[in-house]
């Protein structure tokens, strides 16, 4: 296939902002998970208010909606990556596509994981009993050559909790990127029903198998994002045609589906698949509402939210590193609430620096290298969009 240049790229600032809000949700979730009572499984009888906050739709997304935010990232990635493939006459060369994906994802990731390695060696070692097992699972293992190589290539099965456990999503992101052009062939060639049926079956099998199979479980999220991009004009028109009352009802219904979460005690392959699919439907409704004209879309175009959208990938990559370092260095010297506040502000500041100093140059390098490979001599807009539209890849 040959890369082609198209005259116009689609860019949705609203989707930038959704990604930014989702990244903030992950940040808030991890700030709270340092507390053992939050990180552990709870029943309604033990902690009724905490149980409601953790598992009641809508309320959950305000406090600990990180897992659902990552599913939203996956759907958004499928949507964004699909756009260049769906342009009339588009033909996307595989190698330039992968070069841009590699530079877009790996260069900021390498910067973040290097920082994690360095800070972990300088931080206070050993478990901190006052904090959760989730928190203490990071920076607890020695850096060995096999672990270093796994972090370098980011495709195998390894202890991703060791230094920055958010990278679990990047593992799936890169695996899916390797086959995304093939997924798009199916999206373009076959009906949405055939695509959803196939990936529902694969998803159930994947979550049942675990390990590498989990990537199969998440494929449907990327494919549905791509299908949403394929049919976006018609779906947006349907949503805009609703009465204000029905729009509001659909929006809140989607938000509730998005924020559904399965208690750990009930997890099995069937329910994991079912809840993932419900979350996915909610994600699609939120994305459609964001792209349609209305109050939600107007809110998402606010400069502050758009700023968080731009730095969302760096914020996702760096916040846990800043959080762990802050707690380990300041534990015993400052109150916990103040340490968490410092970690939150520090994460946002470092993410902004990383965006301008690392992400933007990484995108330009990827476009430049891809242009050389494709022989165009300058960045190809069609292929380049996959790395730049809406600011960030889904972590």
TrEMBL record:
<keyword id="KW-0812">Transmembrane</keyword>
<comment type="similarity">
    <text>Belongs to the acyltransferase 3 family.</text>
</comment>
<protein>
    <submittedName>
        <fullName>Acyltransferase family protein</fullName>
    </submittedName>
</protein>
<dbReference type="InterPro" id="IPR002656">
    <property type="entry name" value="Acyl_transf_3_dom"/>
</dbReference>
<feature type="transmembrane region" description="Helical">
    <location>
        <begin position="272"/>
        <end position="292"/>
    </location>
</feature>
<feature type="transmembrane region" description="Helical">
    <location>
        <begin position="166"/>
        <end position="190"/>
    </location>
</feature>
<feature type="transmembrane region" description="Helical">
    <location>
        <begin position="336"/>
        <end position="358"/>
    </location>
</feature>
<keyword id="KW-0012">Acyltransferase</keyword>
<dbReference type="Pfam" id="PF01757">
    <property type="entry name" value="Acyl_transf_3"/>
</dbReference>
<keyword id="KW-0472">Membrane</keyword>
<keyword id="KW-0808">Transferase</keyword>
<dbReference type="InterPro" id="IPR050879">
    <property type="entry name" value="Acyltransferase_3"/>
</dbReference>
<feature type="transmembrane region" description="Helical">
    <location>
        <begin position="62"/>
        <end position="86"/>
    </location>
</feature>
<feature type="transmembrane region" description="Helical">
    <location>
        <begin position="107"/>
        <end position="128"/>
    </location>
</feature>
<keyword id="KW-1133">Transmembrane helix</keyword>
<feature type="transmembrane region" description="Helical">
    <location>
        <begin position="21"/>
        <end position="42"/>
    </location>
</feature>
<feature type="domain" description="Acyltransferase 3">
    <location>
        <begin position="13"/>
        <end position="355"/>
    </location>
</feature>
<feature type="transmembrane region" description="Helical">
    <location>
        <begin position="196"/>
        <end position="229"/>
    </location>
</feature>
<dbReference type="GO" id="GO:0016747">
    <property type="term" value="F:acyltransferase activity, transferring groups other than amino-acyl groups"/>
</dbReference>
<feature type="transmembrane region" description="Helical">
    <location>
        <begin position="313"/>
        <end position="330"/>
    </location>
</feature>
